[in-house]
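Handout, section B. The chain below has 85 residues.
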Amino acid sequence: MKLGKGLRVVYDLAGSGTTLVLGYCAEQVSKICARSSLILRHNKTLAANLCSAMDAKGIKDWVQAAPYHSWYLRGLDVCHIQKPT
């Protein structure tokens, strides 16, 4: 698996199976590189499904999934930045 360096962005169509592919790729990257992966999804349900799948595989500490907006707002809180209105 040749990955290169940096961030990866994957675009998808609804119902195309991208969520499963992202989960699999993140799992493989984490195993190969011994680094954690973060999958950001726009949909809370898809993020929750990925979290459950990673937990079932016992790798939730290595591969984390989160809804984008929740992750973004949590980052604002951590950095003590006022949330946009």
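Note. The mean pLDDT is 82. Compare this with the example in section A.
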